[in-house]
Amino acid sequence: MWVYLLIGIVVLIAISVAVVFYIRNTKLEDINNKFNKLEDVKALPFQDELFKVKDLNLHGEAKKLYTGWQKEWQASLKDSLDTSEGRLSEAKKDLEKFKFSASDEKVKQGEASIARVESKYDQLTSEIDELVQMNEKSAIARAEAEKLHREAKRDVLASAYQFGDASGPLEELIDSFEPEIREYDVMINDGNYVSAGRHIEDVRSDLRTLKENMDDIPVLIREVQKDLPAQFQEIRFGCRDLKAEGYDLDHIKVEGKLSTLKGKLNLVEPLISRLDLDEARKILDDINTQVDDILELIEVEVKAKIKVDQDQPLITDELFHARNSNYTLRTEMQYMEDQFFINDADIHSVQKFEHEIESLVDVYDEIVTETAKTNARFSEVENRISHIKDQILQINDEQEKIQEHLISLRDDAEEAKENTIYIHDKKEKVYRKLVTSNLPEVPERFIIIKNELDINLRKIEDYFSKRPLNVQYIKDKVNQTVMDLNEFEQEAYELLRDAELTEIMIQYGNRYRRDDHAFDAQIRESERMFKESRYKRALEIIKGALEKVEPGAARKIENDYDEK
């Protein structure tokens, strides 16, 4: 047994040794790869990248950058790669001694050094490319700036009349850009590419702004010399025409405002001549805003006049309608006072409306007269007219409701009379059906209900003879009596149904009485209940008994009865 155990231990040790050697060989291979990568980093073509700058003038900023990049790369390459090579060599020795942890730590340090060199390479080559691209972009910017300068000079010379007094200052400003462009060339010759790039970008931006301003100057001059003066004149003449048509525009103070705006406008042309265009635009924006305000106030008056003209025929018709309706209501109320009860609130409302209508007519006539005689501020007239319109429409609506109520008094009284006749006829018909049925006797409850209906009908008849007649009271009384009649009719129908069904089922069940004593006893009990006028209970007993001897028979009899 111990031999097998010994063999197992030997095999386990052999496997462990093999695994350890495998791990060491794997890590050695990894370190050798790191050495290969180190050689690749040493061979990075930084000098080829740096050669891109050789075509530039290596003076000033360019020389300083070139020297700095070269020194920075050499220093980084020497320090980082020496450190990396040393750490990787130490890691290799540790592996030979099977010091895996120490070896791994030194490999990480070596990798970090290699990564720093690669990062530095990327940084420096990026800065080199940026300088080269900056030079290319600034050359394009210089060409565009020269083109803009040439076009600006040509435009001001060819179309000096469009710029007015601003043509002289424009020429001076354009000429001032020539030395700025030449300054760029000097910077390039001196190798100051970074400063030259920033400088020419500023020059190009200023020339673009200049070109935009040159496009604006004729527009601004036209606005100052033609557009706004023409608009001032148009407003002035338009207001005179409106005043002739009856408009009161004194509150807008058109003449005073236009004079003030004209004074402001006189300040703009000198600003344009001095090329102070931002201030000129600011003043023109303010003038245009104030002109819009004047036009808006005038438009308010014009729209108000249109609204007044539209509302006047409507208000006239509504006032006449209100007067006629009020007279009709007062006359009708006087006629109906003796016949029907009319609420004091309705009477007082009609009287109040009479005074309000006359007051509105007076105010409306005054407005129409004043508007016809003198110029009117139609925005105020519109407010007053709208107030009258709202009031008279409300009055007409209220008077129409009162008129409908008066009409409904007659209709409701007539309907109540018809319902009274219907109640009497229906009550007699139902009671007659109870009396003429095969019932042993009419239950006392139905006699009581009929007497109550008779008493209510006599009261209603008596109330119809009273004057003035309170229609709402009698209408409520009749409606309640109709509800009592419906209940009387419903109960009578249920009673007759229960009685007739009981008789039919007893007759049907007679066939089982001789052979079934229990069933016979149930029928006898049902007959006893029937004689005592307890028809509902009698029906329940016979239904239950019949269902026991012939299931479904009672339901069929009931369905056949209800379908008749």
How many discrete structural domains? 3
Shape: flat
> What's the quaternary structure here?
single chain
The whole-number mean of residue pLDDT values reads: 76
Question: Care to count the β-strands?
Answer: 0
- Portion of residues in beta strands equals under 5%
* Low-confidence sequence ranges: none
Total number of helical segments?
18
Give the helix level as a range of percent: over 70%
- Would you tell me the structural class of the helices and strands? mainly alpha
What is the H/E string?
Answer: HHHHHHHHHHHHHHHHHH
Q: What gap, in angstroms, lies between the N and C termini?
A: 110 Å
What summary fits the major beta sheet?
Answer: none
Radius of gyration in whole Å, from Cα? Answer: 58 Å
Which characteristics define this entry?
87% helix, coiled coil, EzrA, cell division, Septation ring formation regulator, membrane, flat, mainly alpha
Q: What is the strand and helix layout of this fold?
A:
Blueprint: H1 2-42, H2 46-51, H3 60-96, H4 100-158, H5 160-163, H6 167-175, H7 177-189, H8 193-244, H9 254-266, H10 268-273, H11 277-336, H12 344-373, H13 378-435, H14 444-464, H15 471-513, H16 517-531, H17 535-549, H18 553-563
Helix pairs in contact: 1-3, 1-4, 3-4, 4-6, 4-7, 4-8, 7-8, 8-9, 8-11, 9-11, 11-12, 11-13, 12-13, 13-14, 13-15, 14-15, 15-16, 15-17, 16-17
Brief digest:
This protein is an all-alpha fold and 564 residues long. Helix content is 87%, strand content 0%. The two termini are 110 Å apart.
